[in-house]
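Practice problem: predict the structure.
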Amino acid sequence: MFIVMIASECAPVAKVGGLADVVFGLSRELEIRGNDVEIILPKYDCMRYDHIYGLQQVFNDLWVPYYDRWVHCSVFFGFVHGRKCFFIDPHFEKDFFNRGIFYGSDDDPDRFAFFSRAALEFMLKSDKQPDIIHCHDWQTGLVPVLLYEIYKHLGMTRPRVCYTLHNLKHQGITGEYILHETGLNRADYYFDYNRLQDNFNPFAINLMKGGIVYSNFVTTVSPRYADEIKYSSQNNGLGHTLYIHENKFGGVLNGVDYDVWNPETDVHIPYNYGAGNIHVKYGNKEALRHRLLLRQDYKPLVAYIGRLDSQKGVELIRHAIFYSLGHGCQFVLLGSSPDHEINSHFLHLKHHLNDNPDCHLEIGYSEELAHLIYAGADMIVVPSLFEPCGLTQLIAMKYGTVPVVRETGGLADTVFDADFADKPYHARNGYVFQTFDRPGLESALHRAIGMWYSYPEHFRELMTNGMHYDYSWNHPGGHYLNIYDHIREK
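Answer:
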């Protein structure tokens, strides 16, 4: 099968969040299964070019419609850790992808609408007729709209579209100008509740809604999140659209790339280990303490790795720090926030706790340090308000680090409480709390810390239980191939 991924991110060259890991990991799994996969991305100036092998210009004369003019683009090709990637580079005064950032410009809808049109124009002009176009999130929501309203009539009759929703908090709600920019000039036709009109603002179009309406199948990144966005406020206004299209909608749990995240082969940690010799893990705990100048003591080490924002439960993350320190633990944090005020708050907190030998807050991100924290920590907290899938808990379990999570989205699909899960003891792998508040978090942390101190052999069983789970791309890869086959038959 010939599959083209169209996305705004791909790890490790253009990575902001889990979307990048999905695009790379799923593409790799599909290739392993014998499919031909290509990825189309913007050519950002801030990409990790050191991860692209053999980058070269392969298409010099791509002209893309933009309002009443044509914009000249070049297309580059290179291998990203074995994945075949094309990068679209527009040459005009707006410099859409030469801004030193991936997202955050006021004209982001303009930038990615242009990219969506350019990706399809490139496929048309280079005579690519994939079986499947798989696009991701609001940034590529216009791809199925443009395919079926324009490019199908220009000869692209073969592709079917799978569209994956990674986070409904961001939907690409924008103005009518996007229609004129991309050649969808019949505003009265597209400003329709059953097409692109936003469900709550009759004067706005919703790019994510367009992707849902026009694609052949819609997925999201965990079964639980699929239910939550159909039946709760987590859909951020798209609930009715998902209900109308529920016959082509489902949740597929994300995977983890075990070539990257595997304590048995990890090059970033000093001591490699697996479930059979888990005691070796404690050498990494000592190494982490040494690196971060924490005291060597008989205490559990609790960690947080990830963004610091409202979705991730920033207030509960802060509370977890002080609760852990007050109950005989050490705490390590690695993360930053796109919000300047939150970043400043945690920098102030770092200064306040600077002399505490049991605490280290690293405001920023380091891939190498992340690997060492996963390997060295005893527990990891993920107190999210909502969590479409979450990779943190999946990676932590592979490293024998027990997750303490809130019961939501993909966290509920993957972490099963040590005391209360309706699973046999060998299938329980962490601690879960339900209410998004301090008492909820404390209830789970209290049980986890108590188990570590009072029943260390049971805590170690919990660690190895998590390590035995297979959250690789093997299972989701199979699910996606079934979806592709299903929509190809229509």
